[in-house]
Amino acid sequence: MDETATRAQLAQFGHSLFARGFSVGSAGNISVRLADGYLMTPTNSSLGRLDPARLSKLDEDFRHIGGDPPSKEVFMHRATYRGRAAAGAPVGAVVHLHSTMATAVSCLPDVAPGNPIPPLTPYFVMRVGRSMPVVPYYRPGDAAMEPAIEAAARGARAMLLANHGPVVSGKTLTDAVYAAEELEEAAKLFLLLRGTTPRLLTAAQVEDLLATFS
Ligand code: 13P
Predict the structure, then answer these.
(1) What does pTM read for this prediction?
(2) Domain 3-213 has CATH 3.40.225.10
């Protein structure tokens, strides 16, 4: 896909996520890898009203080279790309949301820090994977978060930032958006089922999904 088509696709996905309440106000940011750098949503922009022509363009070292000033979470995206590449699983897009259910889970003190949402459904396992770390709280835009995000990204496609929201990566923008949507639905199921003892997918069923679909 060329840059013009990628710009249009990013704006379309932003609009779709916003229209369905996955992001409100100016929350959330999205980046996509290009042949010569990255596109990123501008800081303080609404995902519902992105102008493809004004998206931030960054070079391969994440320096701002065009469009509006980028999200203050540039380093969060950079750390995710670097962590996934270091793990031998390079990604082409990163989606950060404050979606309600995943953010609610990120506020719970009593979840497993390496895996706060158990394997309830196949699509959560297929899109998000077998683990999803919770990264300790940092102020939005705090560059001190970068090493923790890179470390988390080395071991997982998605993570929850405590009291903040999810960061999800994918080979393509479509993959990253689908994974962010599955994560939000899995978080909703997890919260609906809290206080019950649901049947989980077994370890063998999880491995079978990963072997078949990864
Ligand atoms: P930006 O508007 O700078 O992208 O920040 C929004 C956000 O989601 C912070 O975490």
Answers:
(1) 0.98
(2) yes
